[in-house]
Every structure is written in structure tokens, then in C-alpha cells.
Automatic annotation (TrEMBL):
Protein name: Uncharacterized protein
Keyword terms of this UniProt record: Membrane, Transmembrane, Transmembrane helix
Domain of life of the source: Bacteria
Organism: Algibacter pectinivorans
TM stretches of this protein: 26-50, 70-90, 102-121
Amino acid sequence: MEETIENVSEFDAFDNFERRRKLLPWWVKGFCWLFMLFGVLSVVCLFLGFTNIKPDLSLYGFETNEPFSLFGLFVISIGILKGISAFSLWFEKDNAIKIGKIDAIIGIVLCVISMLVMPFFKDGFNITLRLELALLIPFLLKLNKIQKRWEFNRA
């Protein structure tokens, strides 16, 4: 009798594991893989800073080719955050929604800064519309929508 109860609880845990990932839409699942790769590449770019290889780093309008500059460390740290967020969502961690929301809010703020503040510090005044907002805002709204169900389906 105890074996049956143990098997049922293991099955339920597996079933909850599957349901959390099913809460994510297909486009978030695709971006999870992309940003997990992006997070790994951010760490690689950090290590390339010790060599003569200077990778081009760019995210949300912030660009540099010096990994150990202010912008370089900033872009690399944001890339690592995006990788952690994607990893947490894909592997259905309990804190994934919170990390995802932090990632989305930071991304939205950085896009707005790069669109409205950075043009004042560059030669020539050009406002650039950041298309990342077209995905960051729906991502944040989707995370808000599934948060209660995500927390309910703890594995």
C-alpha cells in the first residue's frame, strides 16, 4: 500500500513539473533557449576580456567592444540575468516568475533610457524606437497572468 502512495506522489510531482512549462506560450519557450545561450555567451565574452579578442557587445542600445568597460560589464551582467531568467523559466524553478519579472522590468527601463536619454549624450540627436519593447511588455503581462497558477503548481 505504501508503494502505491509513493508512486502516486511521484507521478503528481512529475505532472506538476509538466504543467508549469505548459503555462508558457511557445514564443517564451523559444526565447528561453535563445537567452540561455545568450547567458552562456555573455560569460564567454567576459573571459574573452582577458585576451586580445574584443567581442562586440550590444543589448537594448548599449554598445561596446570592451568587456571590462562600464558598458561592457553592464551588457554582460544583463546578458547573464537574461540567461538566469530563461533557465529558471525553462526548468520551472519556484522563483522563475519573480526573476522573469525583474528581467522584464529592467529591460523595459533600459529600453526607455536608451530611447529617450542616450540620444542626448551622442553626436546628433536620433531617437530610436527599441523593438525589444514589443516583446518585453507582453512577456511581463504574461508572467503576471500565470504567476498564481505557477505558484500553485509547485513541484
